[in-house]
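Exercise 3.2. Students should predict the tertiary structure of the chain below and write it as structure tokens, then compare their answer with the key that follows.

Predict this chain's 3D structure.
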Amino acid sequence: MKRRLYTWLLFIIFMLQSTLALSQITKVRGVIKDSETGEPIPFVNVTFQNSSIGTITNTSGEYFLESRQSYDSILVSFVGYKPQAKPVNALSYQIINFNLEPNIYEIDEVVVLPSENPAHPILRNIIANKEKHNPRKYDSYTYNLYNKIEIDINNVNDQLKNNRLLKDFQFIFDYIDTSAITGKPYLPVFITESFSEYYYQKEPKIEREIIKATKISGVENESLSQFTGKMYQKINIYENFQRVFEPGFVSPIADFGLYYYKYYLIDSAFINNQWCYHISFVPKRKQERTFHGDFWVNDTTFAIKKIQMRMANDVNINFINDFVAEYEYEQINDSIWFMKNEKLFFDFNLTDRTLGFFGKKTTHYKNIHINTELPKRVQKINDNVIVEENAIINDEDFWIKNRPINLTPKEIKIYEMVDSIKHVPIYKTYEKIVMMFGMYHYEIGLFELGPYYKTFSFNEIEGNRIRLSGRTSNNFSTNLMINAHVAYGEKDNRFKYGGGFIYLFDKNPRLAVGSQYKYDIQQLGQSPNALTEDNFFTSILRRNPNDKLTMVKDFNVFIEKEWFQGFSNMLTFNYKSIEPTNDIPFQKTTLSDTLMFNAVTTSEINLNVRFAKNEKYLRGEFERINLGTNDPVLNLNFTAGIKNLLGSDYEYYKVNVNLAHKVPINPLGYFKYIIDAGQVFGTVPYPLLKLHEGNETYAFDRYAFNMMNYYEFASDRYLSIYAEHHFQGFFLNKIPLIRKLKWREVISGKALIGELSTRHEKMMNFPEGLYQVNDPYLEAGVGIENILKIFRIDALWRLSYLDHENIEKFGLRATIQIIF
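Answer key:
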């Protein structure tokens, strides 16, 4: 699965541009200007002659048109100018510019009095009738749909074509084409099609899609097939805000649209025997998450008939250079308006000139039924998306018979091309290199070496540390993965080692068992999100000497069961023996003596209950990429320490509750919070208490207290709250010059309060500098993210317990993050 997922990534790294080939689609783009002034003319009507296929120019006078039909000319017209027509070469790409000649009339004096923009009353009627046409108002609806997704490499050039690394791939350059939307040359490398049934019910809410048939170039994986349908690409123009990878884009027909857009009534005409108004819209301000484009709206129902909207040129969003959405609606049963066709276009690039890729999606809807009861079998389905057994159909006769629109010859050959690429010998070498950077491992036959960033590190305990580690590859098994590592520290002269396995009985829903043993250093009181102890970057980003590490023998065995999408359990048995160090001693002082402990040994059973409604994953053979959820994520953990089992010295019980959620607050960005609470029952030595997560590196850690040291606070009952708000440039976008940097503002705060009973200290002395948090521990921060698109830097203040030794009251922390 990993190999297949990285197929198209290979081409993003290595591809090129060449002479343009025929496209089997008529594509035209250009600019229309005033012949006398040379100024671009906005809102000019542009159509293929003798057709209903048309568009208007944007505020820069630019236009683009595409059609699978053959036309011989293009016509442009605008009030005050003489119309013009120019010939078109059918079924090819071309640039056709116009210089319109003004139409001069002599008229009597006209007195123009101020009046309301004629587009505004129409917009108010659209807003007043939005709920009538919003599909979410219906109790239920179902439909069948055909979905086609294509991925193309863009900005390819001759320099890359002549690269000797690509000499074995020259055959692919016969497929190069040019985009009418951007004018960029592109190379198609991936195409997928699917037929599915979609079901929606308002109360109780049910949203299901059943993939009935799918075909993916070069891939036969049902996990990837789930993303070929409707569920993962949804835009509803009747909602005030749209999500284009990130939330917060203002719909052109939002209730408060007049605050964000300027509207122009530019035409009116019959469309399918229905009189419609033609309205254009442009953003009022720069860098806000808005669109420009036009729509046709029915004059009686004020339902949108069709709309084209394009992302504003200077939107503060990363990696998406362009986005165009086109929707067409039809009236059902002479009353209800519903979507008929949908086309989406994305242009992903670091910059306009760097290698990137296009994403294109075309969807056709049919057999639409409103307010009908959902079938019982659908109501019983737990997952949002189901890929039917044997849904992968590669028989071309099936697709020829069922496609609502035929593929072009070039689209058909994409399937053949991707399969051919996989058989080029050098392809497998390139694939391994891409996997090494993406998965941190390098494949050698049945094994994978890595992760490479753990090969060398250094700390106060071990000095320079060398580690060799690896695991079995998918060539060994797609159900069983075995891993092992060995490490050596030149300062402590000790070998460390470990190994384990995971076995998957089922991948969807997930059922897995596994075990892991390690004898190695470990940092207690570290967040699960922190850089690991033997990570090279942990070594170089330390702000304090790394002398609080302990040697741990750790053995666990687990079983993981996913009952249905978003609900899972994990049952774990864990044996752990923690050794003391000079800096982290284990001792008990009595009136007559000091008792030293060789280790803290415990055996425990933990049950995790995880609930994350509608959480989505992209599944590989063993690993899963979490695509998140819009709902809260709840984790419950119940732990029981078992005395006298495998030498365990302690009986105790722990309960932990963790709640996390990301909440859009448009247009002010989004808000994240994490609430964590727990309690320890019984009497335990301090390593088994809740050692609150500190951070002694300069790397920002969302799940730790970044101004807290390790072993600074412990509790047996605690509550912590973390909150941060991302404004997504809401303020900085309005400051001249600063807004060109496209920085974004972040504010954050953390609070912790807890209790610590003195009974635990009777079992083992607390180390010097370990405190309880009877009074709240507080941190606050202000940050800038999206620096050079990937960096985030936070200025953090510690607001309490300022009298502790060896602390920072103020500090800077940085992290790398990939965000849109």
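Discussion points: The two ends are 25 Å apart (CA to CA). Residues 1-23, 227-231 have pLDDT under 50 and may be disordered.
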